[in-house]
Amino acid sequence: MATSSQGEGQPNIPTSTMASEQSNNSDGAAGPSGIPRAVPVPKQRPVPLTRQVVFDLGITGLENECHILRISASRLDVPVNEEYFNKYVLPKREISYWVQEIFKYSVQGDNLYRNGVQLPTLRIRQALSEFLEFLGDEPVTLIAHHSRRIDFPVLYNAMKACDMLPEFEKKATGFVDTLPLFRGVWQDFGPYRLRTLYGKLFPREEQNISNVMVLKTLVGHPDVTDEAVSKHSFDFTYVAQAAKRSFEKKSNLPSWKPLITSRFVSKSMAQRAAASGLAVHHLLLAYEWGEEQGVLDVLTEITSDGKPRVTKDKKVLEKIVSFITKGSFDDEQENESLEDEDDFYQN
């Protein structure tokens, strides 16, 4: 395999060793090659159930980096209308159009409104602190609906930005997304929107109740056994890795736009590469170190789950390498970036 140097004082690194050097870099930072380690694909591993708490977030949009507008929660082991936690948060990011239209949230100055009514709000740090206090001292399993891709990563990002991850990790030992749970329990009841399910299963009950109360009632249904809940649980590491891959994808995907628009790679393949931590400039760097084989080494690196970092499909690899070797690259597009993940909340 070819090697090259990058100026005085830079070692000649055989590209065949690039992947192993990346794998040996245990802190997740860029290795000697300047290429970051692959961000692992989260693996769902069921965990023992602890005290169960259902919760629901109101958020400014549908991306993992959105801000929290509301945190609602209730313990499963108390009556439906008792120990109900509900706090509103004044966001630092703009509320998306669809949230304004559907949920009727709006911000005017330093005030949050819903349906034109001003709401009492807290700073995000205070709201999270009170939420952690509400969870108590015993380990809990957090349960939310359609939450694996949005609610849990959003909550994780907020805790991280406010330096509360250590305490959060001690308290939240398990997580459950009730969307796949309910699909497994009530296989012929779709669609699996909360209120649709609630209306079918509890047609005579009060329908004008909060999402948390709806979810709590559904999870408390006799059909929803602890065994079923545990089957759909996952640990803190899963949430952390999902949040990290989401951040990497959003940060790195803009650099792949020229390849997508030129049809050198599909959008889904570009998303996979971006989520693993790769921007196109990393492939250019790999090409500088090891020419075509250097690019192939990075794309086909075997990760901790035994699968290639991006792909081993020869046709896809050939197209990506072809693009890199031609240098058909828009520096301005590649250099697009998001704000740092620790700046999502400014308190």
From TrEMBL:
Compositionally biased tracts (Polar residues): 1-27
Gene3D superfamilies per UniProt: Ribonuclease H-like superfamily/Ribonuclease H
Domain Exonuclease: 51-222
Reported cofactor(s): Mg(2+)
Any one GO BP annotation for this protein: DNA catabolic process
MF terms (GO), sorted A to Z: 3'-5'-DNA exonuclease activity; metal ion binding; nucleic acid binding
Span list, region Disordered: 1-42
Keywords annotated in UniProt: Exonuclease, Hydrolase, Magnesium, Metal-binding, Nuclease
Gene Ontology terms: cellular component: cytoplasm
Family: Belongs to the exonuclease superfamily. TREX family.
Identification of the protein by name: Exonuclease domain-containing protein
Organism: Pomacea canaliculata (Golden apple snail)
